[in-house]
Amino acid sequence: MLTPDQARDRAQAVVAAAIRAGADAADAVFAADASTEISVRLGQLEDVGRSESGELGLRVFVGSRSASVATSDLSDDAVATLVERAVAMAREAPEDKWAGLAPPERLLHGAPPLLDLDDHGDPEPQALRDLALAAEDAARAVPGVTNSEGGGASASRSVWALATSHGFAGAYATTGYGLSASVLAGEGGNMQRDYAHHAARHASRLDAPEEIGRRAGERAVARLNPGKLPSGEMPVVFDPRVGSSLVGHLIGAISGQSIARKTSFLLDALGSEVFAPGVTIRDDPHRPHGLRSRPFDGEGLPVGPTAIVEAGVLETWLLDSASARQLGLEPTGHAARGVGGAPGVTTSNLYMEPGRVPVSTLIEDIADGVYVTELIGQGVNGVTGDYSRGAAGFRIENGRITTPVAEFTIADNLKDMYRRLTPANNLEFRYGTNVPTIRIDGMTVAGG
Known about the structure:
This protein is an alpha+beta fold. The chain has helices spanning 4-20, 76-92, 125-140, 209-222, 240-253, 256-260, 321-327, 359-363, 414-419; strands at residues 25-41, 44-62, 65-71, 145-164, 169-185, 192-200, 232-238, 281-283, 306-310, 313-314, 335-336, 344-345, 350-352, 368-376, 386-397, 400-413, 421-423, 433-434, 438-446. The protein has a six-stranded antiparallel β-sheet. It has a five-stranded mixed barrel with strand order 7-14-15-16-19. Strand 9 (306-310) and strand 10 form a beta hairpin. This is Modulator protein. It comes from Sphingomonas lenta.
């Protein structure tokens, strides 16, 4: 695999070739990845996979017309053909007065921040197999576990580079490791499945396989013999595994494209109180060895910690350069760029700050409610904010989490849900988006 410097140089060379071929402006992305994945089941090796890929993406502008092309053939002849084709396509494309590279004065200059995203590891398949077996063994050892869907371990290394004709060129490398187990408890028609997974940039920061396996087994057993919930309005408490999706809906609603197209339920909400006053949501691309940390955005702009919601108030849209121009605003450093196509927007290490009370206090006054550990389906309307999803979890009775429940639906509107949201104090950074346990009062529950 190329080094970051080599990847950066390759992207720069393609941009220079595009300018020589007649483009007025251009940017190029080079992405390479190598990964190994191991899966086991019932104590036996089931699959070993190794993949290596390299791709080059080029976007060119001729006036206000643009075109994007991508290739995995990195030979000199193929790249030369790619450049000629891209410029020819751009000359025939429709005009788009909003499209274009990021403003030169906004680009990152100087050395990017050091984020410790690459531990330079390359574990042998045998080591990954041992981790997967240990995780599955620990899950199968939990009393009540009767079968296994398997354990898995993976390791990868990626290099990503971006160059633009406005003077930016940068690249960085990341490593990633994952470990999981998925098992079943019970027999026949009463079987229940659950899983546990952990991912990290550094192998040394992965949870122990025994811990991951135990967690998977205990979760599956706890779900046995689920009952039914009564229908009505009640408090709903979201486990952090699923509560992060509520923040994901927010991000979709405040993306520049949604605002520019007027397709967001938060269209006029900037600067207003969207959440309860105790809620703050931040994005931190500079978190050391964070799962989504990055030194610059998909257009070459500098990135930094951002308050998206501060004490309940929505502080910003998430804007790439095109949506910023359309809205008469400035890009926010949240552009995301794949190998093909124009940039969109994304967050990095997104999280909701913890509240002030432990989970036990959060639920102690709930006489009848539900603790949700699984969400099913995609019943969320980004235009209206209407929310309706299937769910499973555990009943809350007299301030205690009690018996498992399944086959029920929770419904409300996100605007109302956000204003009634209360976070607990148990935030952990385990995923790309992290939240503490969340309580929302007065949701409509339809039992089975």
